[in-house]
Amino acid sequence: MPIKLLALDVDGTLLRSDGAIDPRDEAAIARARAAGITVTLSTGRLASGSLAIARRLGIRVPLVCADGATIVEPRDGAVLESRTIDVAVAEAIVRRLEEHGLSRFVFTHEVIHGDATAASHLPYVTAWTKDIRLHDRLAEQAPWRDEGAITMALGIGDERRVAQAHAAVSRDHADALDAAMFGVRGGQYALRMLRSGIHKGDGLSRLGARLGVRREEVAVVGDWLNDLAMFAWAGRSFAMGQAPSPVREAATDVLSATSAEGGGVAEAIGALLG
């Protein structure tokens, strides 16, 4: 069945390791569009970290942002759909992360709010957006509550503390949240919390319904564990060459190109178009 929609992960896929879009990938995206394939982004980034890339590529269909928590209009940044964490739940999460001595972040559609103790982790969280605002004590600050659109919460610390917080959050909010623990830079660990049932596969499913495109007509390209859900949903999936084993094994196709050299998107589009 011909592919009608191509969804691209951003970091580690569309962007090379140096943060640039490879000219081969940009040219291939134009070729795919000329062949009648609609191209969009499906990313963990917030809208504010995605719009400039989408506009550079001339993308005109909605983007899947924040790992599926939001669907965003690329031309004006309007949030068309959102699946957010209840403010009361977010407040409880922040208190729990503080109890366990973790650095704390709360993500809205556009902004990351963090605790002052989280300053050392800014190089890591800027992957989601560069619009980051630190507060003396996050639990006591109002701005993120007033925005009322909490897409994600994040705690960072050593493995033992993160594991303890993971157990506590999973126990307290099993029905409301999906919590995942993973390693980050410098031997630290992160605890990421999204609203229950939210992932890139869910976001693409909702986007497909908007566009009248069936899952069999969707191809995706990605490189990391948060791409697994969209790999499972889409008709065809391409894993970047540097992707870890679980991602490579879940894909229908494994690319030779890596984010270090670029060209993975061009390789995938070449396979689609022949």
Fraction in helix: 25-40%
Biggest β-sheet strands, sense, barrel: 6 strands, mixed
Distance between the termini: 14 Å
Shape: globular
Low-pLDDT stretches: none
User: Strands of the biggest beta sheet: in what spatial order?
Assistant: 8-7-6-9-11-10
Oligomer: single chain
Q: What is the string of SSEs from the N terminus onward?
A: EHEHEEEHEEHEHEHEEHEHEHEH
Q: Which structural class matches the secondary elements?
A: alpha/beta
Radius of gyration: 18 Å
Contiguous helical run count: 10
Task: Assess the beta-strand content as a share of residues.
Answer: 15-25%
- Strand elements, count: 14
Overall average pLDDT? 94
Concise overview:
The chain is of the alpha/beta class and 274 residues long. Helix content is 32%, strand content 23%. The strands form three sheets. A six-stranded mixed β-sheet has the order 8-7-6-9-11-10, with helices on one face.
